[in-house]
Amino acid sequence: MNAPDSPSPALGNGPARIGPLLRLAQRRAARTFSEALRPLGVEGRHYGVLLNLAKHGPLSQRQLIDLTGSDKSAMVRTVDDLEARGLALRRPSPADRRAHAVEMTDEGRALFAEASRISDEVGARLLECMAQDDQELLCALLERFVTGTGG
Which long-range contacts link 55-63 to residues 24+ away (Cβ below 8 Å)? Predict the structure, then answer.
């Protein structure tokens, strides 16, 4: 019997296997990352918001929803969690006084630095079953797949 996240022979060899394979890969990566983040008291969804705040600076919740692929109620819960932990805060947006911008606090930046280190370690562990050239090829192919651009 196959392990829960191992590909089934029933997936076949054709293009139809891409969806199930990506789902299995995502589950393995998410589970491994969640376990590694647990000591910090955050989850992948928190890291995703902090990552985007670190990359782009203060953002509206709408922008965070668009960048993370989250839904509105999940984003509200995530930002509420980050605020309760002192990792982020909402301030009136200078661009739109009806909206609020979410920004990282100093505590959020410190936690994000540690979570980023963990993310690097997890990524390396997930890819250690492949040669370096294969790791780079996998990442390049996934980037092309995500953006829908040819190579």
Answer: 57/103, 58/91, 58/93, 58/101, 58/102, 58/103, 59/101, 59/102, 60/93, 60/96, 60/99, 60/100, 60/101, 60/102, 61/99, 61/100, 61/102, 62/99
